Amino acid sequence: MSKRITIRKAEGMWSVRAGGAVLGESRNALELTEGDYAPVIYFPREDIAMAFLDRTDHSTHCPWKGDASYYSIVTKSQTLKNKVWTYEAPLEDVARIKDHLAFYTDDTTVAVERI
Q: Any residues with CB less than 8 A from the CB of 103 and at least 6 apart, and which?
């Protein structure tokens, strides 16, 4: 594993909410820490209500994780553009995050929390 990135099981039950709806809960989430950034919780795809997500054509590249694909969250009142990302074919050192989703929580529209 890259010295820059560590991945461990996120202890306890984790929840993600947006637009008043619970998008998912998981006891199998992963916590990824990268450099000096705040840890990010990655939820197994099977623990997320994918009906709330709409794939977009947005993508980014990370030299340590690979190419990320994005989803928007569709709620009753709004569409939250590109708030979800996933590494569908992550680099070998971070292969554990394959089939997991992470959520931007940089404003009040999406909440990821331990419950």
A: 16, 18, 23, 41, 43, 83, 84, 110, 112
Rounded to two decimals, the pTM is: 0.94
Name the residue range of residue 38's domain. 5-114
- Which structure tokens are listed for 33? 């820490």
Q: What is the CATH number of the domain that holds 84?
A: 2.170.150.40
pLDDT along the chain (115 residues), means of 10: 83 95 97 93 98 97 96 94 97 96 93 96
Answer whether 48's CB lies under 8 Å from 101's CB.
Answer: yes
Using CA atoms, how far apart are residues 82 and 106, in angstroms rounded to an integer?
12
